[in-house]
Amino acid sequence: MVRAPIVLDSDPGLDDAVALQYLLGTGLWDLKAYLAVGGNVPAEQAFRNARGLARAFGIAADVPVHRGAGRPISRVEFSADFHGPTGLGTEVLPDSTAPEQTECAAAALVRLSKEYEGELTVVAIGPLTNVAAALLLDPQVAYRVRHLVFMGGAARVPGNTNPVAEFNVWADPDAADIVVSSGIPYTMVGLDATNRWRFHRDDLSRLDAAGPGQRLTARLMRAYLKSYEDHTGQDTAALHDPLAVGVASDESFVTAETGTVIVETASHLTRGQTVFIPGESDRSYDYPPAISARTKHTGRVALGAGPRDFSAHFIETVLLRPSA
Ligand SMILES: [Ca+2]
User: Fold this and answer.
1) Which UniProt keywords apply (predicted)?
2) 228 C-alpha to center of ligand 1: Å?
3) Residues labelled catalytic
């Protein structure tokens, strides 16, 4: 089977780490680059974590890891404490033995969009800073990328960072707005869907039983579950980032509609809100021209859990891809 070219852009991040493992486990993708972006952790720590994960999952020799933008487009960098002191709980992974790439993430994305024009899938599971930077460098990236799937946003459910905004979009709302207004074919996989597919304590015992190759994964998921418990009181954890990777190959993990997403970038109160205007809406609002003009760009927006069980598929798939 021919594996399709893909780029993963990530701010590792506990669920980012297992999203990479899941991507590799599917066997569907030819990972051309692993891009780091600040978000859950500052940009430099994201790069270190990404290199460590590339080594841990045995791809360091084959997949270049690129350093991302040093900061959000127009915000002060902010990192969540949800993912622990290193971003991977307390895990400090040995660095990759591969030489450091000098090409930055945005430049790599521009280059790969040319090399794999019309074929390249991009999955972004952190703030959209690198993708926006690539689009600013070369707006034609939007027309060369086959499909962008990003984890972010909350269309019709509450946010997790303020009452209406999801963290990735909140962290760099300007970047997100550049992306959804660029013309790039995109699918937004936000909290409407990601909160619906969970990792359970029972899944930990499957990892524990799988031997040394799943010990890192078990530690990461144990830390992730603990963070959920400490921060939200929930005893299960949302599979946010892995789900975005899953949707890149099969939309039936979610229900989705076509419409326009506009990101709130002006308000302090609702910063990062992803306002969803359904494409098939029979409601007629009286939009000002600046908003009406935006509705020519549409994407797919995940609005709930789909018929295919992602939680089951996730655990089965990571079990296929032990770490080194
Ligand atoms: Ca992430």
Assistant:
1) Glycosidase, Hydrolase
2) 15
3) 240
Å from CA of 19 to ligand 1 middle: 9
CA–CA gap between residue 40 and residue 77 (Å, rounded): 10
Place of tokens 């430099």: 44
Number of other residues whose CB lies within 10 A of the CB of residue 86: 17
Hunting for tokens 């400090």 — which residue is that?
Answer: 92
Pair 150, 124: CB distance under 8 Å: yes
Phi-psi region of 42 (alpha: psi -120 to 50; beta: other; left: phi over 0): beta
Q: Which domains does the chain have, with CATH numbers?
A: 4-318 (3.90.245.10)
Q: What is the CB neighbour count within 10 angstroms for residue 250?
A: 14
The pTM of the whole model exceeds 0.90: yes
Say how many Å lie between the CA of residue 153 and the centre of ligand 1. 12
Residue 149: its H or E element: strand 147-151
Separation CA 73–CA 221 (nearest Å): 31
Average confidence (pLDDT) per 10 residues, the chain, 324 residues:
96 98 98 97 97 98 97 89 95 96 98 98 98 98 98 98 98 98 98 98 97 98 97 97 98 97 97 93 77 93 98 98 94
Strand 198-199 versus strand 237-238 pairing type: antiparallel
Q: Are 242 and 121 in contact (CB under 8 A)?
A: no
36 three-class SS:
strand
